[in-house]
Amino acid sequence: MTRTIQAIRGMNDILPDQIYLWEFFEQTVRDWMTAYGYRNIRMPIVEQTDLFVRSIGAVTDIVEKEMYSFLDSLNGDSLALRPEGTASCVRAVLEHNLLYAGPQRLYYSGPMFRHERPQKGRYRQFHQVGVEALGYSGPDIDAELIVMCAELWKKLGISDVRLEIGTLGSAESRALHRTRLIGYLERHLGRLDDDARRRLHSNPLRILDSKNSEMREIIDGAPRLLDDLDEDSLAHFETLQRLLRDQGVDFEINPRLVRGLDYYNRTVFEWITGKLGAQGAICAGGRYDGLVEQIGGKPASAAPACGFAMGVERVLALMVECGSEILRPVPDVYVIHQGEAANGAAWKTVRYLRDSGLRAILHCGAGGFKAQMKKADVSGARFAVIIGDDEVQAGEISIKPLREAAGQVRVGMAEAVDLLKRT
Ligand code: HAM
């Protein structure tokens, strides 16, 4: 027996019954981005593995455990399915010298890939909408990005989402903090798990992100980066808070907010909901002032930047949880017909109706009037248009409402369009 082939675990089909929600979301995002002056950029899904190793960081879960990297069997190149979009976006901006024209406000959307253990809200192929503002150094752009998110949640009918912000300071303040943190963790070496010991010298900040409840106490008592901040970073963070307050955006400061990617400095933030269980982070981002130079290599290409990405599956699930009402688009008419002459008239009719701005489905395949009428009903159309010999002879069509008790009428085409649009 032939084995049936199924989709890869953690990689989902998005079916027609779900797509109207996706399309509503995508249209809302496009309008929202345009209103703020952000332009769309589209990068390839596959990049050189090294791009992600260098930007996200070699000692991160994403690169160490979750990245789909492989050797191209045709030429031996080391490639990876993108686990996120920031690195690709920065690469594209540098490759095409976009920053020569000045700062760039950009966004992208599409599938990302991480080999995580699949569960509700966590997939191996998932979708992000990512927004990157490159060439801006001030806290005003950080605030703009956050205010934009707050506005989008409203547009999508999402509530029950809270904002956590934090700051990672400058490279120097992190270095100072790192030394203090390593000193503290070394004093508690016996209580660290294997993962934490392994990361003690390579990435001690990530230890604070551990989910191991036995290390909770150690983590809670660890020195706080906020206390080691340099003056400029502190001022940046304080202005950001003021701007958010001015714009009426509520937030909590989380001094322990650690992101799973190494490129961040200063501002980091996460939007979290309690409605989606363990996978409550719907959107996250921050500032990455060093990344452009790191990827571009030359100090001349340095440009401060800030951005975020949201997990589309999680945002949509939250919309459903919040009961956002999205009207499912239905066809206006389903055209049923019988006989050769009626078939010709039916083709003309659907063309005329569509040209008039109506959504019209032509019945294809066999079936008597009764069977076709059933199909019309299942299609969800508001009206059936019926064309038989009588209609062909009279040069008219019959219209039968499918969602209300009103009776059938026979009218000419122009009148039909009026009637269908009016109702
Ligand atoms: P991230 O926190 O790794 O950041 O991902 C952003 C969002 O993508 C998460 O908050 C979550 O909603 C969603 N997400 C991540 N992994 C999965 C998964 N396996 N299944 C479903 N959804 C997931 C970034 O990717 C950065 N590039 C964000 C950024 C842009 N920072 C600056 N600019």
UniProtKB/TrEMBL annotation:
Any one biological process term the GO annotation gives: histidyl-tRNA aminoacylation
Keyword Cytoplasm: yes
TM segment ranges: none
Record EC number: 6.1.1.21
Coiled-coil features, chain-numbered ranges: none
Binding-site list for L-histidine: 84-86, 114, 128, 132, 259, 263-264
UniProt cross-references to CDD domains, sorted A to Z: HisRS-like_core, HisRS_anticodon
Predominant cellular place of this UniProt entry's protein: cytoplasm
Listed GO MF terms: ATP binding; histidine-tRNA ligase activity
Subcellular location: Cytoplasm
Residue stretches making up the Aminoacyl-transfer RNA synthetases class-II family profile domain: 1-329
Catalytic activity line of the entry: tRNA(His) + L-histidine + ATP = L-histidyl-tRNA(His) + AMP + diphosphate + H(+)
Entry annotated with the keyword Nucleotide-binding: yes
First-tier enzyme category under EC: ligase
SUPFAM superfamilies: Class II aaRS ABD-related (SSF52954), Class II aaRS and biotin synthetases (SSF55681)
GO cellular component, one term: cytoplasm
Keywords linked to the UniProt accession: Aminoacyl-tRNA synthetase, ATP-binding, Cytoplasm, Ligase, Nucleotide-binding, Protein biosynthesis
Subunit structure: Homodimer.
Protein family (similarity comment): Belongs to the class-II aminoacyl-tRNA synthetase family.
Identification of the protein by name: Histidine--tRNA ligase
Organism whose genome encodes this protein: Nitrosospira lacus
Name of the coding gene: hisS
